[in-house]
From TrEMBL:
GO terms for molecular function: G protein-coupled receptor binding. The lineage of its organism: Eukaryota, Metazoa, Chordata, Craniata, Vertebrata. This is S-arrestin. Pfam families: Arrestin_C, Arrestin_N. GO terms for biological process: G protein-coupled receptor internalization; nervous system development; signal transduction. PANTHER family: ARRESTIN, S-ARRESTIN. It comes from Denticeps clupeoides (denticle herring). Residues 193-363 form the Arrestin C-terminal-like domain. Belongs to the arrestin family. One of its GO terms (cellular component) is photoreceptor inner segment.
Length: 400
């Protein structure tokens, strides 16, 4: 059996326009971003002289749609680009950029027209903060959408029955160039102790070939090597390790949300004058944080599952203020240190942090030119916890 290439499609309720796309994830390679391509299918009889347009938009939402105050919506359009696809402004063949477009045009017939967008260099990736379990509606997130609509002109009011949109994602994969193996150390001197406490922690993958990479993949265990030389007269009463996610909302404020996404309370102790060398394993997963408010997630396509947000990788020279939500990760190693009697109640902490990246591996590229096309219709009824939108009111061309 030949392999199958899934094509996502969605048709407007009045059947005037439809959008077809061969993929919904578009990769940010840091130095360039995959372009957005697809095909719009029109029905000239239903259009009745109207024009058909396609829009690529990037929107930052920081509140639910029902939280508008005095007509001010809790959203900001970071980027909007609109193209007229029907009647075509150029020869149809000149708008073909990919083999998927060629196959779609051949299959859909003469009323199908290609579209093509290139992302600007400074757009953020798809990411959102997890809402509380009882929250409904939109949440703080960066969303991308390809929308097709029919109207008399680009700025005219658009009936929702004549509009259709497909959510897409702008994603990043783990870089292929290796970096230095992350390792940190610290030495702490104590009062009434002639010698110090030394702590060293490092992240080191077991496979030698990729040991230099400081990037871990989603679902991959993180091994933390801890080396303690306690020359002091204090006692290390406990060793606590965690992975912290730092989500910085940089678009409209400098708010940062620091959330532990996995925690290991080892209970290990190191007496005065003793040493400890041990490897601890941490596994940050969304499955263990589904009820945590404010955890950053990779952009969702609503009817699909997601994972903890991937680390943000930014090209030099790009202003971070326009990148919406920046995500980073670090391993925290904390020693709880107590004194001997009569100072046993005096407790202090010694800790280090090790930054690392948490991302998806880059998938292997395959040749889909000969694959069989399978059309998958995207319906709102697929969305978890959301009913199909039957509203038929008007919307401006720029509304999502």
């Amino acid at each position: 059996m030949s392999p199958k290439n899934v094509v996502f499609k969605k048709i407007s309720k009045d059947k005037s326009v439809g959008v077809y796309m061969g993929r919904r994830d578009f990769v940010d390679h840091v130095d360039h971003v995959d372009p957005v391509d697809g095909v719009v299918l029109v029905d000239p009889e239903v259009l009745k002289g109207k024009k058909a347009y396609v829009t690529l938009s990037c929107t930052f939402r920081y509140g639910r749609d029902d939280m508008d105050v005095l007509g001010i919506a809790f959203r900001r359009d970071i980027y909007v680009s609109t193209r007229q696809v029907y009647p075509p402004l150029q020869d149809r063949d000149k708008g073909i950029h990919t083999k998927v477009q060629e196959k779609l045009l051949h299959k859909l017939g003469p009323n199908a027209y290609p579209f093509f967008f290139e992302f600007p260099d400074n757009l953020p990736c798809s990411v959102g903060l997890q809402p509380a379990p009882n929250d409904v509606g939109k949440y703080c997130a960066v969303d991308f959408e390809v929308k097709t609509f029919s109207a008399e002109n680009q700025d005219a009011k658009v009936r929702k029955r004549s509009m259709v949109g497909l959510k897409i994602r702008k994603v990043q994969y783990a870089p292929e160039n290796p970096g230095p193996a992350p390792s940190v150390e610290t030495t702490r001197d104590f009062m009434m102790s002639d010698k110090p406490l030394h702590l060293e922690a490092s992240l080191d993958k077991e496979v030698t070939v990729i040991a230099l990479k400081q990037t871990y993949y989603h679902g991959e265990p993180i091994k933390v090597h801890v080396n303690i030389n306690n020359s002091s007269n204090k006692t290390v009463k406990n060793i606590i390790l965690s992975v912290e996610q730092v989500a910085s909302v940089v678009l409209y404020s400098n708010d940062s949300y620091v959330k532990p996404v996995t925690l290991e309370d080892s209970g290990d102790s190191v007496g005065a004058g003793e040493k400890l060398q041990k490897v601890y394993t941490l596994l940050p997963l969304l499955a263990n944080n589904r009820d945590r408010l404010g955890i950053a997630l990779d952009g969702k396509l609503k009817h699909e599952d997601t994972n903890l947000a991937s680390s943000s990788v930014v090209r030099d020279g790009v202003l971070k203020e326009v990148l919406g939500i920046m995500v980073s990760y670090r391993v925290m190693v904390k020693l709880v240190v107590g004194g001997d009697w009569p100072l046993s109640s005096v407790v202090s902490e010694v800790g280090v942090e090790i930054p690392f990246r948490l991302m998806h591996p880059k998938p292997e590229a395959g040749d889909q030119s000969e694959d069989e096309m399978v059309f998958e219709e995207f319906k709102r009824s697929y969305m978890k916890g959301m009913a199909e939108d039957e509203e038929e009111g008007n919307a401006s061309a720029g509304e999502a």
